[in-house]
Description:
By secondary structure, this protein is mostly helical.
Amino acid sequence: MKKHNVNLSKTAAHAGVENYAIFQNAGYKGLYGGLTSQDIHKKKKLKKSQQILDHMNSEELAANLFRATQTEAKIKRENIKGESKANLAHFEVGQKVRNTIRNIGGTMPENLPAMDSIGKAKTRLKKAEKKRLKSDAEE
């Protein structure tokens, strides 16, 4: 996801976006029913220092990946120029992804639970692996 956000950022800059935070929030607002990144932090009870992407499950990550890749493609395909037009494109793509989730009966992304951070999950997996190896060695 980080790689695609970097690509989206470059494409947005090429289109004339100077305030990437506003551009990013436009996509979030479309996908999350009007919520900004700050609103998502509050709703998911994340600390300011925590990154939203680090606390998404695969369902939510997939929706955001689709939003990011399709916004990048749309800006390039339609040769969108200008900050307001790029922001609108990002919002509209986010909204369409949201509508698709609704149409197939999925859970809206803001209603999905926040997951453990990636770092916490890696630590938990390492501990479980060590425990398994120790258990195997004892047999």
